[in-house]
Automatic annotation (TrEMBL):
It comes from Oncorhynchus mykiss. Pfam families: Rhomboid. Residues 281-417 form the Peptidase S54 rhomboid domain. Coiled coil: none annotated. This is Peptidase S54 rhomboid domain-containing protein. Its main location: endoplasmic reticulum. InterPro entries: Inactive_Rhomboid, Peptidase_S54_rhomboid_dom, Rhomboid-like_sf. One of its GO terms (molecular function) is serine-type endopeptidase activity. GO terms for cellular component: endoplasmic reticulum membrane.
Length: 485
């Protein structure tokens, strides 16, 4: 099918040695079944169906969807709250669900400096917070002094409040914490030499309390109205009510009392927990996202490509060669995308598909001498690829994965695709070519890995490679965090 589309025809007069190689390749093509194509297509369809069934379909469109409702907040009053989420024109789940499933998302794969700074800033404010207790003790909430009403409540701040406990003979300087105190927690108990530190952001979650009904401690004998809630995709944590947390599609922590006691990025990313809660390490998203799709339409595009282009190439090259090119090109494309578009949740085998398109060019170059009109075939292929790259200039389509997948697929195709030799010297030249292009690819991949993990780059103008602002709002940067008004 690929040959018909690009109008490839062999010359009438071909050397018998070359003709024999062509016939052997044709026999090989008709005897092998494209098992990898069938397998990857089945997996894509199955996962897409399960994803849509389990996570549903987000609002369909190209803009942002707003939901406004009156929600009970942590101060015991109802407030109008607006939740904003990006629409999905692929007819599939929202971005948060895709991240939870394994989308390419840099903050889940490495320690992102922006996310790390946001978390540390929150901890710094929390360290100076205290429990704000209403005068009738009907409710209490961990807040800063500015957020605690001086007329309707008491800000129980240590060491100024008489309830302040001692630590090594000195009054504690930080606290109090609503519904948590080292004097009444039994597990883990604050006893020497394992006393809880003065810094409340280093306190553990108390799992068992002293069973007494009243402690005469104002920050304990009150009804707590807010607990930690992880909102958005950048580890933002708020002490708030369960109702508000559910409305904002957050993760509510019933047992914790402070944001420093929860790992919000673990909630955001899902999958396997980080080995170190402070350092995201889900590097396997580079290949896991190749099996996911943003929606039903996205999956259908992949199926169409694989049952036409990929299937024909697998018959030519075999399942092992083509699977290596497909998967490794996709991983390389995702790695480049993670460098230049770190906060975009991307799924799908776009890099893999462009790596397969590169195979068509390499197969053309390898057969150039025996084709009747090679320039015509090259022009047709070039027009197709330019069109697809220009399509990547639209919003929500990742051109970095396309470009990197195509380049890596080009190098890998020279190394792995079967070739026709035109003599002994040409055969030796192509063997050297295999080694050279393998080394070039390894250099490319190593360079991208260094840029991602060791020397992260920030490129403002790079966004023009993936979206051209035809109008003022055509390429609006979308923030996956929920917006509050």
């Amino acid at each position: 099918m690929v040959g018909r589309l690009t109008n490839r025809t062999y010359r009438k007069r071909i050397d018998s040695f070359v003709q024999q190689q062509i016939e052997d390749m044709d026999d090989h093509r008709y005897t092998l079944l494209p098992f990898f194509t069938y397998w990857i297509t089945f997996v894509h369809l199955l996962i897409t169906i399960l994803t849509v069934c389990l996570y549903g379909i987000a609002p369909v469109g190209f803009s942002q969807h707003e939901t406004v409702d009156s929600v009970l907040r942590n101060k015991g009053v109802y407030e109008n709250v607006k939740f904003v989420q990006q629409e999905n024109f692929w007819v599939g789940p929202n971005s948060e669900a895709l991240i939870h499933l394994g989308a390419k998302f840099s903050p889940c794969m490495r320690q992102d400096q922006q996310v790390h700074d946001l978390i540390q800033e929150k901890r710094g404010r929390e360290r100076e917070s205290a429990c704000c207790v209403r005068n009738d003790r009907s409710g209490c909430l961990q807040t800063s002094q500015e957020e605690c009403s001086s007329t309707l409540a008491v800000w129980v701040k240590w060491p100024h409040h008489p309830s302040a406990p001692l630590l090594e003979g000195k009054v504690r300087q930080h606290g109090s914490v609503c519904h948590q105190d080292p004097r009444i927690c039994l597990e883990p108990a604050s006893v020497s030499p394992h006393e809880w530190p003065d810094d409340i952001t280093k306190w553990p979650v108390c799992t068992r309390y002293n069973p007494g009904n009243h402690t005469n401690l104002p920050h304990i004998d009150c009804a707590i109205t807010g607990r930690p809630c992880c909102i958005g995709t950048k580890g933002r944590c708020e002490i708030t009510s369960r109702e508000y947390c559910d409305f904002m599609k957050g993760y509510f922590h019933e047992d914790a009392t402070l944001c420093s006691q929860v790992a919000c990025m673990d909630d955001v990313c899902g999958l396997l927990p980080f080995l170190n809660p402070e350092i995201p390490d889900q590097f396997y998203r580079l290949w896991l996202s190749l099996f996911l799709h943003a929606g039903i339409l996205h999956c259908l595009v992949s199926v169409l490509f694989q049952m036409t282009i990929l299937r024909d190439l697998e018959k030519l090259a075999g399942w092992l060669r083509i699977s290596i090119i497909y998967i490794v090109s996709g991983i390389t494309g995702n790695l480049a995308s993670a460098i230049f578009l770190p906060y975009r949740a991307e799924v799908g085998p776009a890099g893999s598909q462009f790596g397969i398109l590169a195979c068509l060019f390499v197969e053309l170059f390898q057969s150039w001498q025996i084709l009747e009109r090679p320039w015509r075939a090259f022009t047709k292929l070039l027009c197709v690829v330019i069109f697809l790259f220009s399509f990547g200039m639209l919003p929500w389509i990742d051109n970095f994965a396309h470009i990197s997948g195509f380049i890596s697929g080009l190098f890998l195709s020279f190394a792995f695709l079967p070739y026709i030799s035109f003599g002994r010297s040409d055969m030796y030249r192509k063997r050297v070519q295999i080694c050279v292009f393998l080394l070039v690819f390894l250099g490319l991949f190593s360079g991208l890995a260094v840029l991602f993990y060791i020397h992260p780059v920030k490129c403002e103008w790079c966004e023009y490679l993936t979206c051209i602002p035809l109008t003022d709002k055509f390429c609006d940067k979308y923030d996956l965090n929920a917006h509050l008004h």
